[in-house]
Amino acid sequence: MFKGFREFILRGNVIDLAVAVVIGTAFTAIVTGLVEGVFNPLITLIFNADTLAGSGFTLRPESAPGAGDAVVLGWGKVISALIQFALVASIVYFALVAPMNFVKRRAERRKAEGHPAADPTPTELELLTEIRDLLKAQQPSS
Fold it and tell me: Which residues, listed in sequence order, are joined to residue 7 by a DSSP beta bridge?
């Protein structure tokens, strides 16, 4: 039981996945800091709001008679999440995907330029025919 678990943990893809999760978590903290520290203040300045997370449309004020809590349609949180998503997606694309695609295309181009098209591998019948002809050529003429 422990042997199977150890083999599972020591597989390369599990380790790669664990590293990706750790890096992704750290990367999310960076993007969150950027959104909350730079972009949200700029947007609150544009919309003249106190905080972006608190921005929204009040559907029912708290002071309404007989009503409970206020009902607010919080568009600020949605805009903040969209900005964060756009930043993460663009950084992942431009920092990871685009360079990897470039490296792959470059490697494929080098491989294609460096190695001309290989001769097709002969079939079994062609090989047997060649062996037969060689053996016949080695036989003394009778």
Answer: none
